[in-house]
Amino acid sequence: MHYLKQFTIIIAISAVSELLATFIPLPIPASIYGMSLLFLLLMTGMLKLKQVESAANLLLGIMPALFVVSGAGLITSYGQIAENFASWVAVNVGSTIVILATTGLSAQALIRKKKAKEAERND
């Protein structure tokens, strides 16, 4: 029964994110709105982790199976991909490097900020 409640919460957040994507005239996918909304709800305490944790862990556990359809789509589109393979790889490698660097620098900045606050409290 608790899975049903947790999936209902996740689906409700997903539905709200679809509405946001429909009514906000920005080129942002609904999934980004959904993840942002879920993050804000968790950070503000309006939603407790235990209210969605079991369902989220279940979804994470089956995530590889969810990518099978995407992989099959790539295989069927091989002809189109092969024409631009080098540029496709360059874009993916480049964007991955940018994301890794951005994430690393952001994490370092947050860690330094946290350490500075702790140092202030200790003084």
UniProtKB/TrEMBL annotation:
Q: For this UniProt entry, what is the primary localization, expressed as one broad class?
A: membrane
The answer to whether keyword Membrane applies is: yes
> According to its record, how does it sit in the membrane?
Multi-pass membrane protein
InterPro entries registered for this protein in UniProt: LrgA/CidA
Q: Which domain of life is it from?
A: Bacteria
Q: Which residues cross the membrane?
A: 56-79, 85-111
Please give the GO cellular component terms listed in this UniProt entry. Answer: plasma membrane
Q: Where located?
A: Cell membrane
Keyword Membrane among record annotations: yes
UniProt cross-references to Pfam families, sorted A to Z: LrgA
Q: Which UniProt keywords apply?
A: Cell membrane, Membrane, Transmembrane, Transmembrane helix
Instruction: Output the PANTHER family linked to this UniProt entry.
Output: ANTIHOLIN-LIKE PROTEIN LRGA, HOLIN-LIKE PROTEIN CIDA-RELATED
This protein is called: Holin-like protein
Supply the source organism for this entry: Trichococcus ilyis
